[in-house]
Each structure stands twice: as C-alpha cells, then as structure tokens.
C-alpha cells in the first residue's frame, strides 16, 4: 500500500467523521431554531389575542354598557372579539388559527374537538403549567400549538353563564339556553389554543442544512485535491526521485545529479542522501585503486 493511498484513506476517514458530526450538530441546531421560531410566532399570536381581549374589556365594553342592558352584543365578549380578529388574519394566513376551545361553550363554534378536549382536561385535572405546547399532524402539514387554560376568575362572568334564567334574554335568543351554563367560579372551562404551521420553517431549515452540507462537501473536495497536490510535490516526488537515484547508485551509476538542499525534513533527507552518495563514491574509488 503506497504512501499516497494510506494518506488518502486516513484523510477520507477523518473528513467523513467530521462531516458526520458536523451534519448531526447542524441539523439538530437548525431544527431547534426552526421550532423556536414557530414558538415565537405562536407566542406573539397568543399575546395579540390577550391584547384584543384586554382592549375589549377596558375600552369597548364600557362604551356600550348601557346598550347591553337592552341588547346582547357578541362584540362586547372578549373571546368573540379575539376570535373575529384572528378570523380576519386567516384570510391572508389560512394556516394560522386561534380558538378559545371550551367544553361547554355558549357559541357552538368554540366547542372543543378531540385533541383540544385532551388539552382542556389536562388543565382541569391539575396540570401545573400555565402554558403547554406540542405538535400534531394535519392535512396541511405539521402544526405546532401552544395552549393556556381559561379559568373563571371574575365572578361577573357567571352573570351570563350560571343558569339560563340569570342570562340576558337577548343572549338566550341568540344562542339558546342549552349551552354555556353551569360554569363555576375558578373553574377551568376551556383553553386558548394557538396553532402555527411548521412546514415553512422546517422546509427553510432543511434547505439551509442541504446548502451547509453541500458547502462542507465542496470544501472537503477542494481540500482533498490541494493536499494531494502538496503531497505529490513536497513528499511523493522527492522521495520517488531519491528511490530512483538509489537504485542507479546501487548499480554503480553515479551520474545522477545531487538533490537541491532545503530547510524542511525532505531537504535534510536530500542533504544526507547527497553526503551518503559522495561517501559511497569515494569508498568505491579507494577500492578500485587497491
């Protein structure tokens, strides 16, 4: 096995290990960054929903309080205002969604589906976290969701949700008296759920990973070629010339030129070879004279 082949085998093994480790680390980092980006987007949507709810309670509802005595206006309900705001957002971003998923809602549109019921029941059964997140598969791709519990902390909410007789007649007329009642103070009745698509961030992360690995492979190829050229000019060729010269000298042919001395290890070896050649030539001449 030649020196070049040994060198290239070691070089390939080292680069393969390096590319493997770098690929694994970069893939994990890019995927984590993509998920963090999705979580930031979902968190921003959640805070926007809370801002809409707060604005409705503090700015809108007080302005129409007198009218609410006569007519029930869904626009005065914080949950309705937040849901309608994000309904407008979905016209441009259809894969983004916000829902105040409730086990027993006044508005049937807010009723939980199976996976949302699991989230609500987790909070109801003593889940300690104030916010949870997870991933799920949908027909449009992988989605990430974050959820926060909806808890009846304000006793004033029970005026519309305790028993049908206590609710505004206009609300009963709009939604009926079958749903949205029987709520209790401090009870967790649902969850705010924001869903954000992961398809695009993950796709971007995968594309970045492909570009990174292609760049790394290109660097390896260039480095491999450059190191082989350096190996040829600086080591293989000088050693091959010395080997050929040694073969000729061993047969008594001293017409080979001396090697140019250098300051590196190959140059030192060439100097030693020249000295050995001269010593051998002198020794042979002495023998011939005798």
Structural write-up:
Helices cover 60% and strands 12% of the residues. It has helices at residues 3-60, 65-68, 78-89, 114-124, 158-161, 169-175, 199-250, 265-289; strands spanning 97-102, 132-138, 141-151, 188-197. Strands 1-4-3-2 form a four-stranded antiparallel beta sheet. It contains eight helices and four strands; from the N terminus they run αααβαββααβαα. The two termini are 44 Å apart. The chain has two domains: 3-13 and 206-289, Orthogonal Bundle (Helicase, Ruva Protein, domain 3), CATH 1.10.8.500; 20-198, Beta-Lactamase (2-Layer Sandwich). The longest helix is centred in the first third of the chain and has 58 residues, at 3-60.
Order of strands in the sheet with the most strands?
Answer: 1-4-3-2
Strand content: 5-15%
What is the H/E string? Answer: HHHEHEEHHEHH
Distance between the termini: 44 Å
CATH domain fold name of the largest domain:
Beta-Lactamase
How would you sum up the major sheet? 4 strands, antiparallel
Overall helicity: 55-70%
- CATH architecture term of the largest domain: 2-Layer Sandwich
Our Rg estimate from Cα atoms comes to: 39 Å
Task: Tell the overall outline.
Answer: rod-shaped
Assembly level:
single chain
The chain-level structural class is alpha+beta
Tell me the number of strands: 4
